[in-house]
Amino acid sequence: MHEMAVAEGILDIALDYAAKNQAEKIGKIGLRLGEMAGVETESLEFCFESLVKGTIAEGAELALHRMPLVGRCRKCGHETHIEHYNFICPACGKGALDIISGRELQVEYLEVD
Ligand SMILES: [Zn+2]
Fold it and tell me: Measured in angstroms, how far is the CA atom of residue 104 from the centroid of ligand 1?
């Protein structure tokens, strides 16, 4: 399952950070998650909760910061929220949109004690 691998990656980062900061408990993990990152959030939360049992991250809150899918037109530079996977610029109707946001999948911040 893709989400399980993602959850493991997040937990690795959090545990590594906690170890470096001599933290005993991980309270909150802020995650930047793009609309098009390909992650099912409910599934990710489920995987994360099952993974953290017995670790210092048990009970930690996973705070998801969802990033919309935004594209910029190659022809006119117009920036827009991409909907329905329509990658043609709505402003000029000609240019293709390059994705500038929406694929993020990264730990944004960690709160540890
Ligand atoms: Zn355009």
Answer: 24
Give the bridge partners for 98, in sequence order. Answer: 72
Please give the distance, rounded to the nearest whole angstrom, from the Cα atom of residue 91 to the centre of ligand 1: 5
CA of residue 67 to ligand 1 center, whole Å: 22
The Cα–Cα gap between 81 and 68 comes to 7
Give 72 Cα–ligand 1 centroid separation in angstroms: 8
Domain extents in the chain: 2-68+102-112
Report the predicted TM-score, pTM, of the whole model to 2 decimal places.
0.84
pLDDT for residue 1: 59
- List pLDDT tens digits, range 8-66: 999 999 999 999 999 999 999 999 999 999 999 999 999 999 999 999 999 999 999 99
Task: Return the structure tokens found at 32.
Answer: 């930047």
Third-level CATH fold of 2-68+102-112: hypothetical protein PF0899 fold (3.30.2320)
